[in-house]
Structure formats: C-alpha cells, structure tokens
Amino acid sequence: MENNRIVGPGFVFAGLVFFLVCGFTQAKDPTANANLSPFQQWRSAYDCLQNTSNLCPGIYELTEGGWVNVSRNQTDDYCKNGCFDHTKWVITCVYYCKRDYVFRNGATIKDINYTVANGCLHGFNGTTYISSSGKILWSKSMAFITIAATWILYKSM
To answer: What sequence ranges are listed for the domain DUF7731 (predicted)?
Structure first.
C-alpha cells in the first residue's frame, strides 16, 4: 500500500514532464502538418513568416504587415539576388498552412503574390496591390438574387 502512494505521483510527474518536453519542440517545417486546427494554422503561418534567408536582407523580408518594402531602384537587387524566390517560398508556405490568411494591411496571399510578380516584371512602386472585396459582394448578391428568383417562381406555380 505504501509503494502505491509513491509510484502513482511518480507516474503523474513523469507524464507531466514528458508532455511539457514534447510541447516545447520546434516545428522544422510548418507545412508538414495536415488538417490543423485554426490556432495551429495561425501558428504555422506565423512560423512561415519568421523564416529568414541569407540571400535576402531583413528589409526585403515579408512580414505580417503585408508590405513588400521594395522601391523602384531596388527592384533588380530584390528580384535577381534571391529575395524574390524566398518571398515566393514564404507565400507558398503560408498558403499551405492557412489559405485564407489576410495580412495586417488587408492584402491576401493572392495580392502579395501579384504584387511581387508584377513588381519584378514592371518595377515596384512602394505599394501593395489589394484586391477589392466587390467581387465577393457581387458573388454573394448574385446567389441571393438567384435563390429569391427561384423562390418567387416556385410560389407562383
């Protein structure tokens, strides 16, 4: 009976230490996890944005703000020295972790992708392209109109 009092808390303590150690491990590849909970999606997307490259100086790295900090005279340096490729990798990583990720400035992954690709083709102008939400509003209103018209036709029969 006396041994049970010592062994029981020992197992609990060992289990607690095991789970704490497992909880503090760093994920090496944020995209390695499938079917993540919403919190884990945000965390993995954040881990993607924290990825740095030796080829890309800190001023060019994409952050949670969504602003691509490249001017017109820095375009060649950004596009040809590895920053473009690194940014595309980060965008892809974020997309795989959380497809509906929206940066602080309201830009989506698609917007940043367009900004970077268009900037390397035609030169950056210091702004980030942000798509209008009118397309979303239009699609939702068209769905409502279609449902309403169907309901009216059904009631008139």
So the answer is: 38-123
